[in-house]
Amino acid sequence: MQRWSAAASAGVGATTASTSCEHVTRVVQRTGAKVVWTTAPTWRPVYNPALFMGKPPYAEARPGRSDRYNAVPAGVVGVVPNVTLLDLAGYIRGQPGGEFDPNHRTDGVHLTLEPTDRVAADFLGPWIVAVGRT
Hints:
Elements: H1 2-9, H2 14-30, E1 35-38, H3 65-79, E2 83-86, H4 88-93, H5 113-132
Parallel strand pairs: 1-2
Helix pairs in contact: 2-3
């Protein structure tokens, strides 16, 4: 994750990120593993000094940033065979309270414990099992 932040801060474009993502995907596949990427929901950090956060503005919250991030694994799926992309962002948007429900993402970025368990049990778990069986 730190490399992504450093690359984005340095102005590294989507082409470089896509090439890196494609490379990592191929390296992992060579081990025999099946590769599953997920989309990321929009980030809307909420300042909370108790969480040891710096003060805004936050680069993560720039409009379109998560869309640009999501384009990277989506592009790899179109180039590298046998790769799965799960729409985690869409799943979270469709939950009661929506994508930015403060009960689900108190910091505007990370899921809290109960939603994390629900995502694992109801969405990611079944999909990953299904991918593993193919």
